[in-house]
Amino acid sequence: MEYVQTILESKDFVGKIFFIRNNPQQNYDTATIQSICKVILTCAPKTRPKIFVDALSASKVTEYSNSLKRQGVRFKKIRGVKKEDSSALMRLPDAIAGFLMDALFNSDKDMQAIYAKAIRRGTLVELV
Questions:
Q1: How far is CA 69 from the centre of its chain?
Q2: CA pair distance 110, 94, nearest whole angstrom
Q3: Counting Cβ atoms within 10 Å, is residue 114 exposed (0-12), middle (13-18) or buried (19+)?
Q4: Nearest Cα to 17, choosing from 105, 100, 101?
Q5: What does DSSP assign to residue 75?
Q6: How far is CA 123 from its chain centroid?
Q7: 23-32: which pairs have CB atoms within 8 A and are 24 or more residues apart?
Q8: Which side of the chain, N or C, has fewer Cβ within a 10 Å radius?
Q9: Strand boundaries in the chain, DSSP class E
Q10: How far apart are CA 29 and CA 60, in angstroms?
């Protein structure tokens, strides 16, 4: 928790951490693809980012790539990150996702207070 709090209080991350609340009934891959599209097309439409998705198989890379291209997303590459490779690369998004689950869906008042402050500061930006 200290790691997340340090990130959310850092001026370096203001306006750089985006999240989307997906429908829990929605298919995971569909929700992930839609989220990637929304973030890139809303926040960085003229860029060609590298996209990394936790535990994405080679066959899913092709599925994601084709779907993103059909929706007008331009990118340099997309690849899955294996668990053994993920420590540094996926630590931040995993920690933020866990924090958001606690803050939004559990009754943890401390997490909710940190969340509210991060939203006010602009460190966390919800895309709707």
A1: 19
A2: 19
A3: buried
A4: 100
A5: -
A6: 13
A7: 29/60, 29/63, 29/64, 32/64
A8: C
A9: 17-19, 50-54, 77-81, 124-126
A10: 9
What's the CA gap between 15 and 8, in Å, rounded?
Answer: 11
Tell me, what's the pLDDT at 1? Answer: 78
Amino acid at 108: D
- CA gap 84, 67 in Å, rounded: 27
Q: Residue 87, SS3?
A: helix
Question: Mean pLDDT in the chain?
Answer: 91
- The span from the CA of 112 to the CA of 11, in Å, is 20
The rounded distance, in Å, linking the Cα atoms of 13 and 75 is 22
Q: pLDDT digit string (tens) for 33-63?
A: 999 999 999 999 999 999 999 889 999 999 9
Residue 94 confidence (pLDDT): 87
Helix (H, G, I), strand (E, B) or coil at 17: strand
Tell me the residue type at 42: T
Query: Which two three-digit tokens encode residue 87?
Result: 């420590």
**Quick one: how many helices (H) and strands (E) in the chain?**
5, 4
53 closest CA partner among 44, 64, 66 = 64
